[in-house]
Amino acid sequence: MLRLLPAGVLLLVVVGVSADDAASKKMLKELEGSYKAVSMSKGGEPAPDEFLKAISFSVKGDTFTVTFKKADANEDKAATVVIDSSKKPVSIDLTPKDGPEAGKPMLGIIKVEKDSITLCWTDRGEKTERPKEFTSTKENKQFLIVMKKSK
């Protein structure tokens, strides 16, 4: 009986991880779509309205893309997304696919409320800890974005 206990514990852990993984994949699938920025700030400083109007976001599969509208062309920046819905708040890692930051994950948190998403992450240059709350202040220097799903 005692020899079966470690196997049972291992099985429960594996089943728990699989359930969490399935929930995270389901959440990622539900996030698929296009989004417009409602508000953005870094270190408590809000982004100008012109910037908010010139930026959009999309999620497809495990790719998060930011599109910057410039004069007569768009510039896309893509990142791989990993979500862990078992964490509270839900954790999100965004790893740029190209450029000088390619392969370096940005640690963040995500909150989904109906058709709105709130993302918060730290500036890699400042600290590499994952935020614990959805705030952007001069002290914490965090990025905070609220996006609304396009219909």
Descriptive labels:
alpha+beta, eight-stranded antiparallel β-barrel, globular, disordered N terminus
C-alpha geometry? globular
Residue fraction in strands: 35-45%
Number of domains: 1
Q: Helix coverage percent of residues?
A: 10-25%
Query: What is the H-and-E element order?
Result: HEEHEEEEEEE
Please identify the structural class as seen in this structure: alpha+beta
Distance between the termini: 57 Å
How does this structure look, described?
This protein has 151 residues and is of the alpha+beta class. The protein has one domain: Beta Barrel (Lipocalin), CATH 2.40.128. It is built from two helices and nine strands; from the N terminus they run αββαβββββββ. The chain has helices at 4-31, 49-53, and strands spanning 33-42, 45-46, 55-60, 63-70, 73-84, 90-96, 106-113, 116-121, 143-149. Strands 1-3-4-5-6-7-8-9 form an eight-stranded antiparallel β-barrel. A hairpin with a 2-residue loop joins β3 and β4. The chain is globular, with a radius of gyration of 18 Å. Residues 1-19 have low confidence and may be disordered.
Outline of the structure:
The protein has about 150 residues and is an alpha+beta fold. The chain contains 2 helices and 9 strands; from the N terminus they run αββαβββββββ.
What are the SSEs and their pairings?
Elements (H helix, E strand, L loop, with lengths): L3 H28 L1 E10 L2 E2 L2 H5 L1 E6 L2 E8 L2 E12 L5 E7 L9 E8 L2 E6 L21 E7 L2
Antiparallel strand pairs: 1-2, 1-3, 1-9, 3-4, 4-5, 5-6, 6-7, 7-8, 8-9
